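task queued by scheduler; priority normal; single chain, no ligands, no partner chains; default sampling; output format set to structure tokens
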Amino acid sequence: MDKKALKKMNYLPKNLTFNDGVAFIGDLSLNELSTEHGTPLYVYDWDHIKENISDFTKAFGDETLYRYAAKAFICKELVNLLDQKNWGIDVVSGGEMATVLSSLGTLENSLFNGTYKTVREIDFFMENKGGHISIDNVDEISTLQDRASKNNVKQPVILRINLDVGAETHPMVLTSGYDQQFGVSIDIAESALKDIYNSDSLFFSGVHVHIGSQIKDPERFKKAMQECSSFLANNKASVEREIVFDAGGGFFSPYEGDENNEDLAIYADSIKSGIEENWDSEYKIMIEPGRAVVNNAGIILYTAGAIKEDRGEKPYILVDGGMSDNPRPALYGSEHKLFNISENKNSKEKLFAVSGRHCESGDLLVKEASLPDDTNTGDILMSTSAGAYTYSMASNYNRVPKSKVIGISESKVIDLIKRQSFEDTIAQDI
């Protein structure tokens, strides 16, 4: 496959190439890596991730507060890379906090997000010099006041407002609107703001919105920021210093067949212009990119098992992974492009259904995969756009061990997360 054809496939790792059908990242053959490390195997083009981080920083500027959304994918090596680039982390659990803390020794550049925060997690965050906490509901205000007082801190908080500004996206990844559980409704936000302002141990630092994922239209961000800046302008008496406008995440990341021509700078300009529509004082922008940083840099390698020619209209390929390492097809009906990257395959293709190994009819990775018609047992299949919400959502369903994760940088392998053993799956049993 020539470079021009690869460039059009904007859902692939940027340093991925094909040689007679065999896939490489840098100089490393993915076939050889599958033999060395086993399958299923998550592989990240680490230099692609670095480039994505640089692209965001160039578009939004060094003064922006970057809080990478750990929910997309997190490991200690990625925390270190983000810290080197002056990025912080958006965390929603004690486990994500512990990952950051084990790498950096502090949570000072972290944002604590989420609809339900346990007292234990709140204390852990405050005890380790946590940065901002996003208030998701009015009940949290008194809880955070109490915990901040007991931890003897003046805790910076931002108020998450749920605006009726839906994104043009799948309903399962929509996070704003009247029927969504996230944030405080705009009609009670003023009262919540006054409660925060009157608190002895909370420091109001800004507003937060997150309208959904896979947002193609920058005007959605602009509209959200217009409403936020209007809200703050009407409540200036409760604002004491330079304010944070957290525009959330949801920046578009392509899957097969998806296109988006908007440059990141267009999103940055839309957010800035929306803020300045109604706000004339000092401010900082905060954003929470996740999927857009890691998704297309990641792939999963599978080994083809039995091929069933006697089932349904298309032959089934059974692979050694499935919904335990990538639950997105079962959850959202999403399909990831599959390539057969084994040597000496025919150019003629036919349709296959590709099924996972789990005892579920819904464990179908791809309903219609166009693959070489001589695809055989033992071939290596590559699933693309698999860097986000795959390992982070992986499970031990059927007590299948979680797969290994590696990165490739400058044609060298970086071990990120080790493969679980059979014994690891029962380690917590009593």
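post-processing summary
- The radius of gyration is 23 Å.
- The chain has twelve helices and 21 strands.
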